[in-house]
Every structure is written in C-alpha cells, then in structure tokens.
Specification:
Layout: H1 5-17, H2 20-27, H3 31-45, H4 60-87, E1 93-98, H5 100-105, H6 107-117, E2 122-127, H7 130-139, E3 144-148, E4 155-170, E5 193-194, H8 196-199, H9 204-212, E6 215-216, H10 220-228, E7 234-237, E8 248-252, E9 259-267, H11 274-288
Parallel strand pairs: 1-2, 1-3, 5-6
Antiparallel strand pairs: 3-9, 4-7, 4-8, 4-9
Helix pairs in contact: 1-2, 1-3, 1-4, 2-3, 6-11
C-alpha cells in the first residue's frame, strides 16, 4: 500500500509537538483520528515509530523516517506552491542559502534587479557557511545554495567563479615586511585563527595551519575584528575581505594558484522551480559581467588602511 502524504504529515506533527492532543489541535483533527493515522502508518512501515504511548520520543525507525519525510514534504509543498503560482500568473518563491561574502557583495545587486522584474516573488535568504548550505539543501530547508565547492554531501555543484585566497594580518605584524608574497615558512611563528574556508580547503599547508590553530571563528565579521586587534592571522578568499576595512594588511600567498570556487548547490537530479530558475538567470548574468575569461573574480587586492 502506498504511503499517503496525510499520514506522514500526522507523524511529523506528533513528533514535533510530542503528544497526540497538540498534534490534533495543530491539524484540526480529533485525537482519535490522529492515533488511528499513526497506527496505520506503523503498519505500513512495519515498525513502531514512538517509544511509548505518550509519543514524546521517536524510536530509531521513527528518527530515520522523520529525517527522510521532512525533506520530501518540503519538496512537495514547494512544488505545489510553484505550480499554483504559475497557474495564477506568478512564478512562486525563492528559498536561498548563501555564504556571507556572496550575501554582502553580490546579492544586493542581484535582488534589486530580480525584484524589479519579478516583484510578486517571495524570497527567503539565509546567510550561512558552505557546510550549513549543503546541510540545508540535503534537508530540503532551501531549494538553492550559492557557496564554495563542498567536500562532502549528496548534492550537485556547478561552478560560477573563483577568487584568490589571501593572507590577512593586523597592521604592525611582522608579516607587513613582506614585499610580495607570504611564504608558508613565514607563518611558522604566527598565531593562526582558523575559519570555515580553511577547515574545508583540501590543501596540505592550509590543513596544517588549521591543525595547529587553537581558535576557530566561522563568522567573518568577528574573525576580522580579532585580526584587527592583533589576536592572529588568517586566510580568506578575496571577496570576503571588505575593501574599506581598516587596521588590517592583506597579502598574496606563496602558492598563487590557491583559490576558492563559488557555485550553485542543489539536490542532484531535482529540477529548480520557475522562481529559482529566474533568479539564477539574473544572478548568472551579473556574475558574468564581473569575472574575466578564466572565471576569476575581477576585484582588486584590498589596500592598507590605517
């Protein structure tokens, strides 16, 4: 027998609320109807979904089912919303997660251009790191991600552009004497502050720096504030470093080929909604206007500011 969406929604409601009465109130049904639906679902899946009659804790089977069906229900609801919006002359809703450097440097212009053309589209934008973007895509929390190339995850990645990795240090640091590029040897005596980019970058020297770092800061604003007051040094992609930032110095690294790839992240073999396709069309056009023929982001090295 086929699992009905209504049964799955009942299960999620009970798991979320922790009891049948609250789930019944949420769904506008009677407690007996909720109990009957749960019993039917357990017969269909072939196992018990809750550890007790109180329904306040799911079993291992229930936990697996809950993690699986949340994403499926979200995808179903998103698809139906897109169909209904299209039928009514609109294109729906964009649910997007992106890394902070994209959110601050690119999204303002993209959203301005997009909403000028599609003013009826709803948007939900989340500013999170690449690991969290992948997690949100896998769970179905968002439909579209824009982030660095993920090292793990059951998602597809399509490159859009790349920017250089640079060494960021405070003014007055010994590295300020560097004339051109900072070598790995020059970092031997430096206090390293690791970050999400470094943690996810597959390069032996960067991994070694991250291993000996005692401080991990994932928020770029907090990270740069610590650099500015002299706590340590870090490595960041060029687009993540504000041009107007004062009190820091930025240097190219010894390996000039080190770069961060930025691209779209989505579920494998899942078509984007009309709204997300329209958004990506605008986003891609803006990116193409700001990269060179090799896909490199055309932004200058941040200048020293005292």
């Amino acid at each position: 027998m086929e699992l009905k969406l209504s049964l799955l929604r009942v299960f999620v409601a009970v798991a979320d609320t922790g009891n049948i009465q609250d789930a019944a109130d949420r769904m506008g049904r009677s407690p007996s109807a909720i109990s009957m639906s749960l019993k039917q679902l357990e017969e269909l899946v072939g196992g018990t979904l809750f550890e007790s009659d109180r329904k306040n804790r799911v079993t291992e089977l229930g936990r697996f089912l809950l993690e699986t069906v949340r994403a499926q229900l979200t995808s179903h609801d998103r698809a139906m919303a897109s169909v209904q919006a299209f039928a009514n002359g609109g294109i729906g809703r964009v649910e997007l997660a992106c890394v902070p450097s994209v959110a601050s440097h690119l999204l303002p212009d993209v959203i301005k251009a997009f909403t000028a053309q599609w003013d009826q589209v709803e948007m939900d934008v989340r500013d999170i790191d690449t690991t969290a973007v992948v997690r949100a895509i896998e769970r179905g929390t968002v439909e579209l991600g824009i982030a660095g190339r993920p090292r793990v995850g059951m998602v597809s990645f399509k490159p859009l552009f790349h920017d250089r990795l640079l060494l960021v240090c405070p003014l007055g640091n010994a590295l300020n004497k560097a004339k051109k590029r900072v070598t790995w040897k020059m970092l031997a005596d430096q206090v390293i502050i690791s970050n999400g980019i470094m943690a996810g970058y597959d390069h032996p020297e960067i991994q070694a720096l991250g291993t000996r770092a005692n401080l991990m800061v994932r928020n770029t604003t907090s990270l740069l504030a610590l650099i500015k007051v002299g706590v340590g040094v870090t490595i960041l992609p060029e687009l993540a470093i504000p041009q107007e930032m004062t009190g820091i110095e930025v240097f190219p690294l010894e390996d000039e080929n080190l770069k961060r790839e930025v691209g779209t992240i989505r579920k494998t073999d899942v078509q984007l909604s009309p709204a997300s396709k329209a958004f990506m069309s605008v986003f891609t056009k803006l990116v193409e206007d700001r990269i060179d023929q090799n896909g490199a982001w055309r932004c200058r090295l941040p200048q020293r500011r005292t």
